[in-house]
Design a protein that fits this description.
Distance between the termini of chain A: 83 Å
Oligomer: homodimer
Largest sheet of chain A: none
Helix content of chain A: over 70%
Radius of gyration of chain A: 21 Å
Largest interface: A-B, 39 and 38 residues
Strand content of chain A: under 5%
Number of helices of chain A: 10
Number of strands of chain A: 0
Structural class of chain A: mainly alpha
Chain lengths: 210, 210
């Protein structure tokens, strides 16, 4: 009864706001617990039970939101990765490319990058999780690089005919490979060199005669 | 006594030859057992005991040749990977690049590629094994791409000033990243596109104005 009285004594905000806030706080705690599990036991070792314990909640709270660990991990990664909707727009293709690759590198160099590394290590290439990860995490972010280049072509900064999926993939692929091969941190000088010595020459130079 | 008589009855070959042959057969059986262990239990799960059992030999036979599993795995990988001493020489930079990248892809697409994938997944970036792997497996093979490009520059087929370690790394890095991200097989059309649309334009085109 005392608790009930206290609750009604709290100044009321907009309808649903307190509920929503509690929902978000719980969701963040769950995502934190997912990343912690990925860092410590990897994707293969992660369990709904373990995440529930880490987030101080029950398994029922997880299953109300996610069908299973595949969907939960994909949502947690999307939560910590730079958003695919937030395309940089500095008016210059070099600045845009550097911004996007630096966001990616910053993520890889953070503790969340270690979680991602452990996810990659455990993936079965033909499994449902690999497919989910491709559709909901990788594809929208690959699309960003392509959109960025198309906008640069509209600005007249690069040759429209130079834009292919492979050329759009080169920057992120090199940064990712450097991360996988040598581990973090990927140095900023490497990112700058990828942009200036590989990506931009491919977009600006005329096609080579074979 | 009967066994002794049989052994002396075998026609004698050149000095040491039968011993060496037996040594090689055993070494191959050991390397096969290493790769099988890497495929099934990964680098983390591989033990000298497990390799000895797989090769039908004793642990003592392994420790006579290798100080521990790090050295054994590095030697086994060097044994199955395309040799770093066998630089292709077709007289043409495109043919040379395609040949080298196709050897790499053929390896990745084979069962040994799966063993390598499991090694990569288990690596601690700062550990002794990562260092051994870098020095004795990766570095000599990176050097091949650089040597190949230098020879092409001597033939006048590419611009000498375009040759940097990063440009030499682009081809193998893209193939490796494709393998890690999407799993085997890496299609031949991808390898051809990497050479024709990325590597050669960087080597033949003039430097872009920033």
């Amino acid at each position: 009864m005392a608790a009930e009285a206290e609750r009604t004594a709290v100044p009321s905000g907009p309808p649903c706001a307190p509920h929503r806030r509690r929902g978000e706080i719980l969701e963040h705690a769950i995502f934190d617990a997912v990343l912690e599990q990925l860092r410590t036991v990897g994707y293969a070792g992660l369990t709904m039970e373990g995440v529930a314990v880490g987030a101080h909640t029950g398994k029922a709270a997880l299953y109300r939101r996610w069908a299973g660990k595949d969907d939960l991990v994909v949502d947690a990664l999307n939560h910590v990765l730079p958003s695919p909707c937030d395309l940089p727009d500095h008016g210059d293709v070099r600045d845009d490319l550097l911004d996007l690759l630096r966001r990616m590198t910053e993520f890889l160099n953070s503790p969340a990058g270690c979680a991602l590394e452990n996810v990659i290590a455990d993936i079965e290439p033909d499994g449902r999780f690999a497919q989910l990860l491709h559709e909901r995490v990788k594809k929208p972010r690959k699309q960003m690089f392509l959109s960025l280049l198309r906008r640069a072509a509209e600005r007249g900064q690069i040759r429209p005919e130079a834009i292919t999926q492979l050329v759009a993939d080169v920057g992120p692929a090199l940064v990712m490979q450097r991360f996988s091969a040598d581990g973090p941190p990927v140095p900023d000088a490497y990112v700058v060199s990828v942009v200036d010595d590989i990506v931009l020459p491919l977009l600006r130079a005329p096609v080579a005669v074979r």
